[in-house]
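Hi L.,

You mentioned the student needs an example of a multi-chain input paired with its predicted structure. This one should do, with 834 residues in total across all chains.
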Amino acid sequence: MSAEIICVGTELLLGDILNSNARYLAQQLANLGIAHYHQSVVGDNPGRIQQTMQVAIDRQAKILIFTGGLGPTPDDLTTATIADFFQTPLIEHAAVVADIEQKYAQRGRTMTPSNRRQALQPQGAEILPNPLGTAPGMMWQPQPGLIVLTFPGVPREMYRMWQDSAIPYLCANGYGQEQIFSTSLRFWGVSESALAEKVDRFIQMSDPMVAPYAGQGEVRLRVSTRATDAHTAARKIDPIAAEIMAIGGSHFYGQDDDNLSKVIGKLLIAKGQTLSVAESCTGGVLGAMLTDVPGSSAYFRGGVMAYANEVKTHLLKVDSQLILDRGAVSSQVAEQMALGVRTQLATDWGIGITGIAGPGGGTPEKPVGLVYIGLAAPDGTVSSMEYRLSTHFDRELIRQMSAKQALDLLRQKLLNQ
Amino acid sequence: MSAEIICVGTELLLGDILNSNARYLAQQLANLGIAHYHQSVVGDNPGRIQQTMQVAIDRQAKILIFTGGLGPTPDDLTTATIADFFQTPLIEHAAVVADIEQKYAQRGRTMTPSNRRQALQPQGAEILPNPLGTAPGMMWQPQPGLIVLTFPGVPREMYRMWQDSAIPYLCANGYGQEQIFSTSLRFWGVSESALAEKVDRFIQMSDPMVAPYAGQGEVRLRVSTRATDAHTAARKIDPIAAEIMAIGGSHFYGQDDDNLSKVIGKLLIAKGQTLSVAESCTGGVLGAMLTDVPGSSAYFRGGVMAYANEVKTHLLKVDSQLILDRGAVSSQVAEQMALGVRTQLATDWGIGITGIAGPGGGTPEKPVGLVYIGLAAPDGTVSSMEYRLSTHFDRELIRQMSAKQALDLLRQKLLNQ
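Structure written out for the whole complex:
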């Protein structure tokens, strides 16, 4: 009862893109407890696609999952090739034509004949709806005991279609009776090795399994187990998760889909407080993170991207003499930026960030990766921290990590308020 | 004369890691002009690895490239499985044993019997040295006309081994005489299908090849050809690229690594002009895009994240009565935001964005995905556009595409100035 993933696309064979779809589907199959021994990548070529299908069927695969090649261009051949393999005619679905037409109309565009090809599916196949794009997939059993699923190559469309339609379809067809359940515990301000040592006795356990992952300054511990239902899984996972959270202390900031922006939002809403930000080196990255959270207008009032020094002095009332004396990248300027934005935007909290994101602009005294974060509090006091990132980090990572560190500084203050 | 990539590792089948090795090797094969039609992923299982090899050989593959499964643990089976497939005994290489011993000693560790397994290679295989790790690979011709290469799964070790040893080996064996050269042409404001139809006669050509790719509102056309050197390739690619650029008209914005922020930067620097931005629904996304470009401080002075209406009126001097009359999401407010930020930050250009990023906040008259972009020009005039995104787009995509559309609006004005 195993599944094979077949990713179709010349861009994969040319190395133009990373195969993130295969990884996602592999994780999802593992979660559903569906055996999965082979993945293939093949170009937009009917003969090679069909030969790959034959190999998979010869290996007794019971689920064939295709990604890519569902679009409107002539090199999108996946649907027609699958139909031909099973000697089944293509049928146009009127509802899909209407859906494509409507989606194009919404964007002020007209459906072309080539777009209409996306409404063709093999006779007998169910439509796998695509809420986020124009190319639907199929859910089909072309012969007894064999399921064929197709998805577009665009990852976000594929993820949504998998969650909304493919999982229920597979479960309805007898798969996924025992699944992997897991929770991810999220930590900031602690290294992977330091955290792993602290929770080593849990990492040594076999059920639930505890595994560390690290990236972009954050560490996650994934606690997972296999069970028939969420309740049984929770009975195994929750006590271990609680112990690990306690060990993590204030480094532990959230769980699963949490991120620092969301956690900040919850804390500010609970206290009825507001926030504004003043960004120099991050130039909008912190604001973008905060406003990425739906509903953030309840506590985030806005901010100033103070890239030029004149913007710092004019809009944030930073003392121009201070910039001359201490430099724009200094703890004093970070503090004045935080105070200035808090006053100008009339918020409870104000954050100021100034630093050297690189690749140019570093000096021996103030190297690339040196960042100062100021935090103005509801009582009008201000504090700051120096944050030193590796000089080997690139501009994007320095900006991302600086913004997250600023959020964590605020989180710690909110917790201790 | 085609190559197949066979990645071995249960962690790939569980989705624990992205298959970046396959992408790297695919790019390298494309660069060397070695045909590559299939990639496979298989677990650490001798039977399945051998079956995958047989399929590749049946498909007339002349180069089999393995990654993964060369380590010292019991589930590292790749080398022994390949030797067994060709019924060849394993031989211990004394020089490799010495190398492993020395590398362990350097790290203060002692070589164990299981580490010693890494010195075993099939009789007749050449060692593929691993300067960065303990597991070497092999370069082997087990039968006439068939090359087998093995690499460890650790990307940085693999990359180095490929560059240092595999490329010279392949070239010495007659590969790499012709390589693929390509350029990507980038377009904004046109759908993949509309553009593909316009350039259909190029897409139908076989040399150079023209292939479309789409994502996040952008379309790319990749023009590629096979040639012995860059000069010969350019003679084939450049005239086609020029014709396509002309057909694309003002939708064409850049080439290869360009993005809209970089193109805007080049245009502003050429004109010696400056820019500021006022962001409501994008809340920093546009500023973050602009400041992601190193050296952007030469033309980007900063901006205001005007999330709350009071920030629009106080910092940007938007008329509060106008917000009451027309709503914060209106062309008039977008224009006043653009004018306000241009004046406050004393820049040549000012951009204002206001819209409904969702998922909440939409109404029948002003649905999620409705965005207004204002642009204040150096002569003090202001204009605006309405940008309607699919109501099915998520918040992140709406914000990203709105910011890019704002950049494109400025780009068009800069070109026509």
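You could point out the following to them. Chain A touches chain B through 91 residues (CB under 8 Å). Chain A has a mean pLDDT of 95.

Best wishes,
N.
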